[in-house]
Design brief:
Layout lengths: L2 H16 L12 H4 L10 H15 L16
């Protein structure tokens, strides 16, 4: 790469990272909305257990469903 291209890349990277610095904060009265049960990924625990049972039956294993790889041991 040429020196000019590296300079442009560095300036673009800094400008891109600087755009993330002003994200703001969640106010105290807005935090209650995030704590509602419907805001969770698994709002129904019984349904989640059923999904995990089906997954375990298909993979013939238990646990490890939060990481990559399958029942064969490969990652």
């Amino acid at each position: 790469m040429t020196k000019t291209l590296l300079n442009i890349l560095a300036i673009t990277s800094l400008a891109w990272l600087g755009g993330c610095s002003n994200l703001g904060q969640v106010n105290a009265w807005e935090k209650g909305n995030l704590a509602k049960p419907e805001m969770t990924f698994e709002s129904d625990p019984l349904d989640q257990r059923f999904v995990q049972h089906i997954y375990g039956s298909k993979e013939n294993s238990s646990g490890g469903y939060g990481v990559g790889g399958g029942g064969c041991g490969c990652n």
